[in-house]
Amino acid sequence: MKDVYLDYNATAPVRPEVIDFVASSMALVGNPSSVHGAGRKARNLVEKAREQVAALVGARARDVIFTSGGTEANNQALGFMSGHKHFVSSIEHDSLLKSSAETQLLSVDGNGVIDLKQMESCLKDSQPAFVSVMAANNETGIVQPIKSIADLVHEHSGFLHCDAVQAAGKMPFDKQTLGIDLLSLSSHKLGGPQGVGALILGPGIDCPSFLTGGGQERSRRSGTENVAGIAGFGLATEIAKTSLDEFQQLRTLQNKLETGLKQLSNSVTVFSENVERTVNTTCFSWPELSADKLLIQFDLASIAVSSGSACSSGKVKSSHVLKAMGVDDCLAGSAIRVSLGWNTRPEEIDYFLQVFEKIVKRHTGKASK
Ligand code: PLP
After folding, report:
1. What is the pTM of this model?
2. How many C-beta neighbours within 10 Å does residue 99 have?
């Protein structure tokens, strides 16, 4: 089979409608800050996208700041923390973990779910707190109990920032109902172009801009807007919103994949398999072969999957997420992430399993079960 792409959590293929829309938006001349007609057309594209992005997560359009992606949104969110004690879960993306030396880590259990008791004792000890917890993990897909986390943070007069880069567009997600104060999104995880994202603030919350200049984005992020990228992001969020039910159908493929893997070898471990996960993500380990060797085998069969963290693809490093979950080095060192999305077909999962079966046979002499 030709080019089976199962690495949607690294980046999802851009939807064809979005490609067309980005191309036609690029053909428009006009700076959104210009007052003439051409400028107003560009401005309309940006403002329409702002509404579409806000609608995906139940936010107000005026609270959306367009950024260059999830990394920038997470970095900018941290600007709000001055004067607060900062806590992040130990399985956050590096754009939060590496942004501040002052940060204190919040533990997770063996499934990667935040330890609410430890979090509460941290909040009691130091107020006011600024807490960052991601909605869904990029490596394992586990979904955090964001509403309970928000309630606890607010009981202690703190603020909650949530990185929803891997959750929005994959599951129903409402910022207000969940009680999130600041929210990060990224376009390329949900079928939009790369290099665009958003930080969404809550009412009364402001974040200092770290890009100064022309005062775009209500002086919260200077620089001429990436009009075509933003327009494509907007359309991708609208399509993701209307396709949420369809996306949930991926659960069937996830089950098929995981059942198939375990049937082919009884030494397969599927991480966090018994807790709530996004329906598109499976992180599994087959300790007979290291992740880099497994990746090569899949790559030779034209299958794209990931090992370790998505953003470190290209360099296979051990996963801080699995480490925080207490997974031993041998299992963590062979962990592979398979992530599905809007264009994944059942035959691709069949093919993936056929290739895995061959790998198992080649390395153990026979399928071990
Ligand atoms: N947050 C999470 C959970 C991610 O998975 C990623 C990218 O993999 C990011 C943030 C960074 O987003 P971007 O690639 O848009 O900078």
Report:
1. 0.95
2. 22
